[in-house]
Every structure is written in C-alpha cells, then in structure tokens.
Amino acid sequence: MSNADAGTLRDSIAARRSALEVLTLEAAPVDWANAQNGIGMSLLYLGNIERTGKYLDKAEAAFTATLKVFTRQSQPLQWAFEQNNLGDVSWNRASHGGGKPEYLKAIAFFENAKQGFAEASYTTPSRSPIRRSIW
C-alpha cells in the first residue's frame, strides 16, 4: 500500500469503514481490529502523500481502537505492531510541529514495540549480503 495514490487510499478507508458496519467488535473482534488497523495505516500513508498532519488524530484513534483486541497478554505480537504504529503517528505529529514532546512519545511507543517483539520472540529478517557490506 505504500505505493498507493491518494485516491486509492481514500477508497481503502471508505471500504474498511463500510466493513465495520458488519464486522463488530463483539461478533468478529480480530477482523474488526484488522479493519481498524487498515484504516489507521491508510490514513497515515495519506498524510505522508499529502505532506500533512491532518489525518493523524483519526489514525491514532484507529490504532488505539485495535488495542481493545490486540492486548499485550492475548496477542503480544499484534500489540507490538500497534505500539509501533502509534509511534509512527507521534513521530509524524512531531515532524508537523509537535516537536520534542511528540518525539519523546514516539520513542516510548517504539520502546514498547521493541519489548513486545522480544517477548513474542519476533525477529526481524537478517540484512541482505549487499547491505551488510555497506555497514
């Protein structure tokens, strides 16, 4: 989706919001949370494409909503991804004028994500041989 244009992202947001009319937290919690996450990601990308922070509050609300399902105890890996997403929101907010307080908030979310990934035994893919030679 990172290569999507603004129109595609808006369509994605609308489709996922429509899906939430059927996918309820009570009836399909994981599907509901995944739809919320998709909305958040689309809003975050849309803001990046348009170089604006106007979608960040709604992206943050969508990512925060997922935490009703993706708790650290029940789904630690998904929880860690959502912490990372919330860190991205704060980082973007900082770059759009929020400054140091938002950067610090982002770092706290990223630290939570790092701990969550470690607790879930998630490892990142190893670097390619080409990149290793550069570093």
Q: What best-fitting shape do the alpha-carbon axes yield?
A: globular
Q: Please report the distance between the alpha carbons of the first and last residues.
A: 28 Å
> What Rg do the Cα atoms give?
16 Å
Number of strands: 0
Instruction: Report the total helices.
Output: 5
Low-confidence stretches: 130-135
The main sheet comes to:
none
The overall pLDDT average reads 91
Order of helices and strands: HHHHH
- Percent strand equals under 5%
| Share of helix, binned | over 70%
The secondary structure category is mainly alpha
Keywords:
5 helices, globular, mainly alpha, 135 residues, single chain
Account of the 3D structure:
With 135 residues, the chain is mainly alpha-helical. 72% of the residues lie in helices and 0% in strands. It has helices spanning 6-19, 29-50, 56-66, 76-119, 129-134. Helix 1 packs antiparallel against helix 2. The longest helix is centred in the C-terminal third of the chain and has 44 residues, at 76-119. The two termini are 28 Å apart.
